[in-house]
UniProtKB/TrEMBL annotation:
InterPro entries: ClpP/crotonase-like_dom_sf, CtpA/B_N, PDZ, PDZ_sf, Peptidase_S41A, Tail-specific_protease. SUPFAM superfamilies: ClpP/crotonase, PDZ domain-like. It comes from the Bacteria. This is S41 family peptidase. CDD domains: cpPDZ_CPP-like, Peptidase_S41_CPP. Residues 1-26 form the signal peptide. It comes from Uliginosibacterium aquaticum. Belongs to the peptidase S41A family. Residues 407-444 are annotated as: Disordered. SMART domains: PDZ, TSPc.
Length: 477
């Protein structure tokens, strides 16, 4: 029996070496053009030895597939908070969610110290309506502790058939005991764009997530807003937008920028990761008809305010950063999340599974890195007159987050990013209810200040925190 496992281990070691040789040779020959570096033979042999010990000695039998998948998952998860191994179910779910329709709770999550951390609840979903907040730590799903689960496993448990329920136990900063929620899963069909005419001459557009149809949806909403005549001002709301597809972010930016403007660029180790994205139909139309070709006159020049907060991440930061660099808009709100890294999904094993791998970092047209820093608003405005009702956890708070390559000082990479300071130096009173409001509705303090800014009225900014100025470099190319 022992010799059989030893033989299996040697076979596994040989397979690993063979795969590594093939992959590494192909990667280096095709992408970097350099000689293949020496393979870590001892480390690969260690992997085979551990595999042998588990197969021979572990208290219960473990399937080979589970061991290999767990090894891959751990290897990828140890890189950064956003790289992830996708098994068959997770890979399928990822493809479905890109289209904006899936069964679940409506939470954008990441992994932090073995627990699932809420980046942002998606608007008008079970999680959002129940009061789940950015920064909540989920430590139990039904009766299963989250610690010990991979992010893929945790997401799997949260998703499911619409109509079924799940109990979620969370830890929230400022609360003395865990909070329990019973959520009923729904078909999450995110409406990526909403709009309304606030009053004659002033429009409002909210982008909740960047999906395949977001650019076309935005064009339709702008047409609707302009049907009664030109606008004097427009508010673009990106709060709690967790991001999405890069081409959708380019499309939204292109709606308001001159044709062929540089929107964002990425830098990575391989040629495919080093590219520039411009405001051109070829960059956002996915081969279909240009949804922006018949935009109403005035969209390119209408005065605009973009609202962001700590839940504005990734693609929403690309849009805010690009429009800010060109001085096309004024950005208002709280500093954004700071996810400035690029993930690509690579299918493996005949396209049944995949790996989501960080391959590059994003930069705004003026060369600012978003990573672990975010977008600083031109006007710092809290959620309420007395401050923000909840702390936002950002990229810089995540373990193993990538450093900001354009920051000279250590704080961005150190792992702690302070939340925006409240006006008058205090948070709302303990008995003050959380800020829950319909965006652009009654009680939306940031929106009220955005409208003041558009109309030339005074804006109630946070006196205790001053936004960093946008670089006064030459116009982006």
């Amino acid at each position: 029996m022992m010799s059989r496992f030893k033989q299996l281990g040697l076979v596994l070691c040989g397979m690993c070496l063979g795969v590594l040789v093939s992959l590494q040779f192909a990667a280096n020959a095709n992408r970097e053009g350099s000689a293949t570096p020496q393979l870590p033979v001892d480390e690969v042999r260690s992997l085979a030895d551990v595999f042998n010990h588990i197969k021979q000695l572990y208290v219960e039998p473990v399937e080979d597939k589970k061991l290999i998948n767990d090894a891959i998952s751990g290897m990828v998860a140890g890189l950064d908070p956003h790289s992830q191994f996708l098994d068959e179910e997770a890979f399928k779910d990822m493809q479905i969610s890109i289209k904006g329709k899936f069964g679940g709770l409506g939470i954008e999550v990441s992994m932090e110290d073995g627990l699932v951390k809420v980046v942002s609840p998606i608007e008008d979903t079970p999680a959002f309506r129940a009061g789940i907040k950015s920064g909540d730590l989920i430590f139990k799903l039904d009766d299963t502790p989250v610690r010990g689960l991979t992010l893929t496993d945790a997401v799997k448990r949260m998703r499911g058939k619409p109509g079924t329920s799940i109990n979620i136990t969370i830890v929230r900063k400022g609360e003395t005991k865990p909070l329990e929620f019973t959520l009923v899963r729904e078909e999450i069909q995110v409406q990526s764009v909403k709009s309304k005419l606030i009053e004659p001459g002033y429009g409002y557009v909210r982008v909740a997530q960047f999906q395949e149809q977001t650019t076309a949806d935005l064009a339709r909403h702008l047409d609707k807003l302009y049907k009664d005549g030109p606008l004097k001002g427009l508010v673009l709301d990106l709060r709690n937008n967790p991001g999405g597809l890069i081409d959708a972010a380019v499309g939204v930016s292109a709606a308001f920028l001159p044709a062929k403007s540089l929107v964002v660029y990425s830098e990575g180790r391989i040629p495919d990761a080093r590219r520039k994205y411009h405001a051109e139909a070829s960059e956002y139309s996915r081969g279909s008809e240009d949804a922006l070709k018949s935009l109403p006159k005035g969209v390119k020049t209408v005065p605009m305010v973009v609202i962001v907060n700590g839940g504005s991440a990734s693609a929403s930061e690309i849009v805010a950063g690009a429009l800010q660099d060109y001085k096309r808009v004024k950005v208002l709100g709280i500093r954004s999340f700071g996810k400035g890294s690029v993930q690509s999904i690579f299918p493996i094993i005949q396209g049944q599974t995949g790996v989501k791998l960080t391959i590059a970092k994003y930069f705004t047209p003026l060369g600012r890195s978003i990573q672990a820093k975010g977008i600083d608003p031109d006007f710092q405005v809290d959620e309420t007159p007395n401050g923000s009702s909840e702390p936002f956890y950002r990229e810089a708070d995540l373990t193993r987050h990538l450093a900001n390559p354009t920051e000279q000082s250590a704080p961005a990479a150190a792992g702690s990013a302070p939340a925006a300071k409240p006006k008058n130096g205090r948070k709302p009173d303990a008995d003050e209810p959380p800020a829950r409001f319909e965006p652009a509705g009654a009680g939306d303090y940031q929106f009220e200040q955005a409208m003041n800014l558009l109309k030339g009225k005074p804006v109630a900014v946070v006196k205790s925190e001053v936004a960093e100025p946008v670089a006064e470099a030459s116009q982006p190319k």
